Amino acid sequence: MGLREFYPPVEPYDSGLLDVGDGNEVYWEACGNPDGKPAVFLHGGPGGGLLPGHRRFFDPAAYRIVLFDQRNCGRSLPHAGDPAVPLEHNTTAHLVADMERLREHLAVDRWLVFGGSWGTTLGLAYAQAHPQRVTEMVLRGVWLVRPSDEAWGFTPGGAAHLFPAEWAAFRDAIPAAERDDLVAAYGRRITDPDPAVHVPASRAWMAWELAANTLLPVPPPDLGDTLLVAFARITHHYIANGGFLPAEGLLAGVDRIRHVPAVIVNGRYDVKTPPGQAWDLHQAWPEAEFHIVEDAGHGGSEPGTRHLLIEATDRFRA
């Protein structure tokens, strides 16, 4: 049998905006079989929002596929592309609570949790808070958001060695006197109310974020300024605050979910979330099925990664 392909495009049969409090409304949609097995898809970023291709990891005849734009991005309101929109009510705890409110709104008892990159972080946080609501987990590109993980992405000793030109552009957008803490320096600019400051800072931040998503280079997505600003604001907000995770981190809570069937997939050459993070998760969770894709980077659509993810959802649909 060859590599599994994406399922054909599918349109939502239902969608809406869910009031989750704090003046926020979260966009959600449901696709596939209304009577099928529930599964929830968690997008990356944070702040990346949904793409139509995210629906295609699941057999639409077998699954009731639930997707949502996390707070302040995608079609959720208010949108962080407006620099006046505050992010104080956008934390991991808020997103976990949003998932529970959405589950209850849709009258779902339990669901499969599928996440990539930041989606693995949120998925693990949700499952550890509500293990009784999770049937299985499919995790791609594990991001634990530990200080060592962030040092890899935002200091000269990590991914900068593999993408030196992209790192130089990211670094050199900040004056030399402020380069001892690039995350803080970018934060001052991304949160500046002046578009002449926060728009170019957001572009530079996202150019680095998107520089290393796949093993083989692909053109970066064509994002307008509003989406770029929202993506940069939310991503920086979480990175600057350690993902709003408890001090002990996500590995400390794995015992609460070790009974949950799970598949962990990571690209060997994933520069954004190197496979050591997925390996550390597997060491804490040996019951989880673990795969390294030898010819893949960070992207969920790379052939070997896509194959394993769809193989997992096909197996769990029964």
UniProtKB/TrEMBL annotation:
Localization per record: Cytoplasm
Annotated coiled-coil segments of the chain: none
GO MF, any single term: aminopeptidase activity
Cleaved signal peptide residues: none
Catalytic activity: Release of N-terminal proline from a peptide
Keywords, in A-Z order: Aminopeptidase, Cytoplasm, Hydrolase, Protease
Keyword Metal-binding included in the entry's annotation: no
EC number: 3.4.11.5
Enzyme class: hydrolase
Gene3D superfamilies, A to Z: alpha/beta hydrolase
Transmembrane segments: none
All residue ranges annotated as the AB hydrolase-1 domain in the record: 40-299
Protein family membership: Belongs to the peptidase S33 family.
Protein name: Proline iminopeptidase
Native source organism of the sequence: Actinomadura fibrosa
